[in-house]
Amino acid sequence: MLSPDEWQAVRLTLAVAARAVGFGLPVAVLTAWLLARTRFPGRPVLNALVHLPLVLPPVVTGWLLLIVFGIRGPLGALLDEWFGVRLVFTTAGAALACAVMTFPVMVRAVRLALEAGDPGLEEAARTLGAGRLDRLFSVTLPLASPGILMAGIVGYATCLGEFGAVITFAANIPGETQTLPLAIYAALQAPGGEARAATLSLVSIVLALVGLLLSEWAGRRLNLALGR
Amino acid sequence: MVRHRFPGAGIDAAFDVPTPGVVALFGPSGAGKSSIINAVAGLLRPDLGHIVLDDEMLADTASGVWLPPERRRVGLVFQNARLFPHMSVATNLRFGLRRAGPGRIGFEEVVALLGLGGLLGRRPRTLSGGERQRVAIGRALLAQPRLLLMDEPLASLDAARKAEILPFLGRLKSALRIPILYVTHALEEVVQLADSLVLIEAGRVVAAGDVSNIAARADLPLARRDDAGAVLAARIAAHDVEHRLTRLDAGGATFWVPLVDAAPGGALRIRIPAREVILARQAPEAISVHNIIAGITRAIAEDAPRRAALVEIALPQGALLSRVTPDAVAKLALAPGVPVLALVKSMTIEVLVS
């Protein structure tokens, strides 16, 4: 049904989204926890920074990434020098762009779950001898796990459709950075590519639907397991 | 031993909790009872305060000492059990135990004491309110606390659930030698469980001392409650099975009550409602009352809204409280120091098996 290079785009999209969520979600959980449970001077600034990709044009986000993580950028040069890692025009770069774009969505979902949690349970854990980290891992995170799972799934689904930042930062290289939306765009640019664009769009729709259904089902199972 | 002092924050309370024993913090809602208990647990930091437990300073605002709750080894039972919903009953019970390490209070002992055997595999969601509270008490005990705080543990339960838990608390008190600070606004819980009583009103200690002394004090707001009455520690002297009576030694006097289902020598408590105590200067003849208790009038106070007088009668140990008309006080010429007889129907004495 799909040609080998179409399959390649699908596989690449799934892999990029997986890497973006795999690296982005733990950072998002930590950030959400900082925002929800601690008070420190730079908190409003951090909050604004986290939400910036949500309101900036994706092209701008991609361009900012180019400046920071480009080969001559402050972080990009360090990464290249120390680890030999290049992000621009690579799959890893596409994953980074996805992660940054979906970061606010994931932080929000986790933060909502953390704020909906009963602080009384953490107090109870304290009086039972649980320190800060202990409480985080034995009470707070398990109870927020439906929200964290939701954040992961929504983040993953959002990654599948990420376009502007990815094409700006990682370019549109088949097999390397050309995810589904980029492949659809390329197909529409080429003469006679409508059929290919339609097929890939159909795949996009199916993936998104599967993701949403999966999150629904997993959320229900998790809530049951948590005794709610 | 615990000692608190929190002037400021609207609360000024200083009292000791002996080991073992149950101290009840008793007072109306909003009197500051929960603030005190939260400060002892470490969940609330008072502006000014001093808390010592077994010679260890838990908090002292003067020297800036503040031990976080997780390092105090002070157990707290909340009003709404606060069990961890994602853990089974057994895992909930072991939460504090795992962190404190094995100690004097064993898992099997607590399970037996609180009747938790059948609940271990269940989730908190599936438990009744009373069962949840029992698990919460067990969880707090297994963290091997040096002091157990209970913040209105029965307040959110209906009368039947309360009656179900009270005996467990009584057993706990005698089985585990651990000081308990018990916050409540229900007099029945104080009467059943507490050894000493701290009366709190508007953030201040109104009175503190032995339950039997405080309950009979004519000058306290406690005596103005409808259900006011004396509480005495009693010992079963003998049973008179033929007449279906039991003889008790209480407060240095002898009381006859309807036959009690407990062995002679056993300790229990009796409560004698003030409205049921009749006063006399001479022993009446041919009367149905079994208990004619000789005492000395200690204090007389007015209860204006009820048009009543409260008479506190000193016994060799403890005291009785009687609510009579001011007219009766005048007719009997009662005054502090005057000997008086208290007539108490056996049927009106509440026997509390502790």
Task: Provide the descriptors you would attach to this structure in a database record.
heterodimer, A: 228 residues, mainly alpha, MetI-like fold, 10 helices, globular, B: 354 residues, alpha+beta, Rossmann fold, OB fold (Dihydrolipoamide Acetyltransferase, E2P), six-stranded mixed beta sheet
Given helix and strand content, the structural type of chain A is: mainly alpha
Largest sheet geometry of chain A:
none
Q: How far from one another are the termini of chain B?
A: 23 Å
Q: Please identify the top-level CATH class of chain A.
A: Mainly Alpha
- Uncertain residue segments of chain B: none
Most extensive chain interface and residues per partner = A-B, 21 and 28 residues
Helix content of chain A: over 70%
Categorize the overall geometry of chain A. Answer: globular
Proper CATH architecture of chain A? Orthogonal Bundle
Short description:
The complex is a heterodimer of chains A (228) and B (354). Chain A is mostly helical and 228 residues long.
What is the topological layout?
The complex is a heterodimer of chains A (228) and B (354).
Chain A: H1 4-37, H2 43-55, H3 58-69, H4 74-83, H5 91-116, H6 119-127, H7 132-160, H8 164-170, H9 180-189, H10 194-225
Helix pairs in contact in A: 1-5, 1-7, 2-5, 3-8, 5-7, 5-8, 6-7, 7-10, 9-10
Chain B: E1 2-3, E2 16-17, E3 21-26, H1 33-41, E4 50-53, E5 56-60, E6 65-66, E7 74-77, H2 89-100, H3 107-113, H4 129-142, E8 147-151, H5 159-175, E9 179-184, H6 187-193, E10 196-201, E11 204-210, H7 211-215, E12 229-240, E13 245-250, E14 253-258, E15 267-273, E16 277-280, E17 291-303, E18 308-314, E19 319-324, H8 326-331, E20 339-344, E21 350-352
Parallel strand pairs in B: 3-9, 3-10, 7-8, 8-9
Antiparallel strand pairs in B: 1-2, 1-4, 4-5, 5-6, 10-11, 12-13, 12-15, 13-14, 15-21, 16-20, 17-18, 17-20, 18-19
